[in-house]
Amino acid sequence: MSISVRLPSSISFLSSSIFSLSSNQTPSTSLFIKPPKPHFPKCTTAVVRSQLATLPVLSFDGTKVGETTLNLKSANPDTARAVVHRGITTDLNNKRRGTASTLTRAEVRGGGKKPFPQKKLGRARRGSQRTPLRPGGGVVFGPKPRDWSVKINKKEKRLAISTALASAAVNGIVVEEFGDKFQKPKTKDFLEALKRWGIDPKEKSMFFMTEISDNVALSSRNIGTLRMLTPRTLNLFDILNADKLVFTKAALDYLNDAYGYEEYEDEEDFEEVADEGTEAEEVVLPPSDA
Fold first, then answer.
1. How would you list the strands of the sheet with 205-208, edge to edge?
2. Confidence class for position 111, pLDDT limits 50, 70, 90
3. Contact 37, 278 (CB under 8 A)
4. Is the pTM of this model over 0.85?
5. What three-state secondary structure class fits 62?
6. Which of 38, 68, 74, 94 is deepest in the core (most CB within 10 A)?
7. Of 38-47, 177-186, 247-256, 280-289, where does mean pLDDT reach its minimum?
8. Cα separations (Å) of 198 from 8, 164, 238?
C-alpha cells in the first residue's frame, strides 16, 4: 500500500527564509558590496631609539680634561641583536672571494685506461686510477667558484654600526688630537702613550680618527692588537672585536653627525613618520536600486 503526499504548489526552493531578503536590505548593497579595509591603530612604538653615553676626554699626557657625549641611533633591545648579527654576517660573506675550486674525477688529468682486467685476477674491479678512493683522484662534492655576496639595505647597515658603537661606548675614551705629537715614527713612543691612556697593549683596541698622519700610522702598524680606522674604513667587525675604543674629538663629532639620533620637534611630526601609509582608504558604496 503506497501513501502519496502532495506538497502545496506555493512552496519553492527560494521561498525559504534563509534566502529571503529583509525589508531593510537591498540586493545591490547586501550581497555584492566590497568590505572596507580595516583601520589599524596608530603606531606609537619607535623602531629606533637614542642611546646617550658620556665619555671622558683625556689629553696626550693621560690627564682627564673634561667629558663629552655620544648620542647615536640604536635599535630596540628586541631587534638589536638580530640587526647586528645580520650586519656582521653580511660583511664576512662579502669579504669571501669564492675562488676555491677542486677537480672531480671527470676533470682530473689521467685515468683513461683501465688499470687491470675486470676478471681472472681475483682483485676488486676498477675502471680508473683517478677514482676518489685513490690518491691523486677526483674530489667528491668539493668546493667550486661561487658568489658569496649578500645584499643589505644601507639604512640597516648604518643602524647595525651605530647600535654596535652605542653598546661598546662603555669601553670608550676620547683623546685630544695627537697627530702632531709624533715627530718621527717610533713604536715605543706609541706604546707609552697607550699606557698613559690606560690601555693595555695586549688588549685589542680600535682607534677611530678622521685623519691619520704618516708618523702615527708607521708608529702603530707593528702593534698587532691595534686597529686604526677612518670614516672610510669603519666596519662592524673591528668594532665588535675591540676591547677598547679610542676616539678623537673630530671623530666623535663625525659620529654624532653621521649616526646621531634625529629628534622630532613635537609628537605630531613623529606620528606622521610612524603612521605613514597606515591610514585606511575610504570605500564608496554603489547606489542602491531600492
1. 64-75, 48-58, 172-175, 244-248, 205-208, 226-229
2. confident
3. no
4. no
5. coil
6. 74
7. 280-289
8. 104, 22, 20
